[in-house]
Amino acid sequence: MQKLVVVGLSHRTASLETRERFAFEGTALREALEWLRERGADECVILSTCNRTEIYACTPHDDLLVNFLHEWEGLPPNALQPYLYIKRSEEAVEHLFRVAAGLDSQVLGES
């Protein structure tokens, strides 16, 4: 069964150096979205700013998103475990609203 899942890292969970490794823009963003869609992450979007990278997708397999981040940087499984958060279903929607409203920003209200 498909569910909304968000997997991400942010200023709350990872250093600037770690976050910079997962900044997506331009060609890298298109390639990342293509990789995810080819593996079954329907309705996928990547939110990438200087303070966070989050992948939102409808998928029955949230491990797909975690595995993608590891494979993208050639990291061994679980290397990112201390830095990642995973939110599912209603919790993912609530998180998205907090991010959009600037309530989860490094500077409160910034969006």
Structure described in brief:
By secondary structure, this protein is α+β, with helices and mostly antiparallel strands. It has helices at residues 16-21, 26-38, 63-72, 89-100; strands spanning 3-10, 42-48, 52-59, 85-88.
Give descriptors for this structure.
single chain; 111 residues; alpha+beta; Beta Polymerase, domain 2; 4-stranded antiparallel β-sheet; 4 helices; 37% helix; 24% strand; globular
Describe this protein's structure:
With 111 residues, this protein is of the alpha+beta class. The protein has a single domain (3-100), classed as Beta Polymerase, domain 2, CATH 3.30.460.30. It is 37% helix and 24% strand. It is built from 4 helices and 4 strands. The protein has a 4-stranded antiparallel sheet with strand order 2-3-1-4, with helices on both faces.
- Cα-based radius of gyration, to the nearest Å: 13 Å
How far apart the termini lie comes to 32 Å
Summarize the amount of helix as a percent range.
Answer: 25-40%
Strand percentage: 15-25%
Let me know the number of strands. 4
Describe the secondary-structure layout:
Blueprint: E1 3-10, H1 16-21, H2 26-38, E2 42-48, E3 52-59, H3 63-72, E4 85-88, H4 89-100
Antiparallel strand pairs: 1-3, 1-4, 2-3
